[in-house]
Write a structure and sequence with these properties.
Helix 5 packs across helix 7, helix 7 packs across helix 12 and helix 14 crosses helix 15. The protein has 15 helices and 14 strands. It folds into three domains: 16-270 and 379-424, no CATH class; 295-331, no CATH class; 430-498, no CATH class. It has helices at 16-33, 35-40, 42-45, 54-61, 69-81, 94-101, 111-125, 145-150, 268-291, 336-360, 370-375, 383-406, 429-440, 445-454, 462-497; strands at 87-89, 127-133, 156-160, 165-173, 176-192, 196-209, 212-222, 226-235, 249-253, 295-299, 302-303, 321-322, 327-331, 415-417. By secondary structure, the protein is of the alpha+beta class. The chain has a five-stranded antiparallel β-sheet with strand order 4-5-6-7-8, with no helix packed on it. Strands 3-2-9 form a three-stranded antiparallel β-sheet. The N and C termini lie far apart (78 Å). Helices cover 43% and strands 20% of the residues.
Length: 498
């Protein structure tokens, strides 16, 4: 469906900022989806060479699987934040709030599980949105304490990825810029017949009119043209019937933002490095496939059995006859070009590792010791810690909206605290082995040692990092010398036998 950028009277109208960010979000989500998605969208990521046939391009574009560097960095980020489950503290109405937290979205998901997925969306896209929906009693229904639970009248959290945000408006309220209108796209399915399902798209419009927060829900109906049917509308009220003058939403900005509902995805640089690695890996795999098969080379004219020109027939048992002075041979492709591509693949792998590590732990400063850098990994100027604070603030703002429905003030609202003890999440021996393998492939030893220190696998000062680096280099040189000497000894033995 083509994005609506020309008719601002339809709920599916898309702001220009959404269109501007779409290519980056497509790249991130394609990389996170994995190899099959990258193969399906190869036309967007693997350039076709001039004069390259379609069949050859398809083989080159889809011959390699994706190394999921972006996905691993995102998983490590979320893993650090939720290595210890978030803690919910409630001083008022504790029993009722904890019951709500155990099923925060009315779909059976515990709050700690739901906000973990919310955090992953926010870290991937740059921001994500929570809507604390306030259900309304059926028209004419008298709500009592006894019937409230039976009617399901409780706040329900809905989580939206950045891609669901279509448009918005802001106003200055009490000297603060607030979102006063927000349109969210909801895609789902509904039953069709006895066994089938069909897709359905809705647009939820949240807005403040005359100082009252309200909503409208439109369903998309496609006939000869796209139409929007108003399914429901209402006012956000608490359990006592009071209205509110702000939208019950919370936004977690994990990337740099200069305006509401805009932000740079914090892992975008890792995504581009991951794409570069994938592109070069496809070329390397393709070149290696070619290099595995020697190419026939003919100099001069081909002849048949009667000495006349003939077409070339190839095979292990086929005789190829050429004219006098001609030549036929099988030529192997040179490996020098492959070396350059392999270096490029390794460089992109190191770039991903470096960018991912710089996100997971704060950038180092030369004046600090390595131990201080490791201990400061959870400081407020850490990129991940800054994003974590934004996620925590958004969850706590959603809890304020939740508490408002229950009749509690912002000061009486429950509070959630995310994990900040990153020291408990360290590199494992398996990670160290993988880093050692990268060193054997050409990764600088000092970079490897620094990574092990930042990850908590080693404890070393800045001077000790240099010492460990020199010892590692000396050990590797010693191994190479011993291997060379062993080879020379074998040659001497062989020559003496002859």
């Amino acid at each position: 469906m083509t994005a609506n950028t020309t008719n601002p009277d339809r709920p599916d109208y898309v702001r220009q900022e959404v269109l501007n960010s779409a290519p980056d979000l497509y790249l991130i989500h394609d990389l996170l989806a994995g190899t099959r998605r990258m193969h399906d969208n190869a036309g967007a990521y693997i350039p076709k060479w001039k004069d390259e046939s379609e069949s050859v391009w398809v083989k080159r574009a889809k011959c390699e699987q994706l190394y999921e560097g972006l996905g691993r960095t995102l998983s490590a980020s979320v893993g650090k934040l939720f290595a210890v489950p978030p803690k919910l503290s409630a001083e008022m109405m504790e029993e009722e709030i904890e019951a709500h937290w155990d099923n925060i979205d009315a779909q059976g998901n515990k709050g700690s599980v739901a906000i973990k997925e919310f955090a992953a969306d926010a870290l991937a896209d740059g921001y994500a949105v929570i809507l604390v929906d306030h259900p309304q009693a059926p028209e004419g229904e008298v709500v009592t304490v006894a019937s409230e639970r039976a009617l399901g009248l409780r706040p329900v959290w809905a989580f939206y990825q950045r891609g669901a945000v279509m448009s918005w408006r802001t106003d200055i309220v009490n000297n603060v810029e607030r979102v006063t209108q927000l349109v969210l796209m909801e895609e789902g399915t509904e039953n069709d017949g006895r066994f089938g399902v069909q897709p359905v798209t809705r647009y939820r419009v949240l807005f403040v009119a005359d100082g009252v927060a309200q909503y409208e829900l439109y369903r998309v109906v496609e006939t000869s043209q796209v139409e929007f049917v108003l399914e429901s509308a209402g006012v956000f009220r608490d359990r006592n019937g009071r209205t509110r003058d702000t939208l019950p939403i919370a936004v977690a900005y994990t990337g740099r933002t200069d305006a509401p509902l805009t932000a740079k995805p914090p892992l975008l640089a890792v995504a581009w490095a991951n794409l570069g690695h994938y592109q070069q890996s496809c070329n390397l795999r393709f070149y290696r496939e070619l290099a595995a098969f020697p190419q026939p080379t003919v100099k001069g004219a081909l002849l048949d059995g009667n000495g006349d020109p003939a077409n070339l027939r190839l095979g292990p048992m086929v005789l190829v006859q050429v004219a006098e002075g001609g030549e036929f041979r099988w030529t192997e492709l040179s490996g020098s070009a492959l070396d350059q591509v392999e270096r490029g693949v390794l460089a992109k792998l190191q770039e991903m590792a470096s960018m991912g590590m710089s996100f997971l732990a704060r950038d180092t400063r030369g004046a600090e010791t390595a131990e201080a850098k490791r201990l400061d990994a959870a400081a407020e100027d850490s990129t991940l810690a800054t994003a974590a604070q934004a996620i925590e603030d958004a969850v706590n703002m959603a809890l304020v909206h939740h508490a408002w429905y229950l009749g509690l003030s912002a000061e009486e609202a429950p509070v959630v605290a995310l994990n900040r003890d990153y020291e408990n999440v360290q590199l494992t021996p398996a990670h160290a082995s993988a880093i050692a393998a990268l060193v054997r492939e050409g990764m600088p030893i000092r970079q490897a040692v620094s990574t092990l220190v930042i990850g908590g696998f080693l404890t070393a000062t800045e001077d000790e990092i240099d010492l460990v680096t020199m010892e590692w280099e000396a050990s590797r040189m010693g191994t190479e010398v011993r291997q060379l000497q062993a080879g020379q000894d074998v040659e001497l033995v062989d020559s003496s036998d002859t």
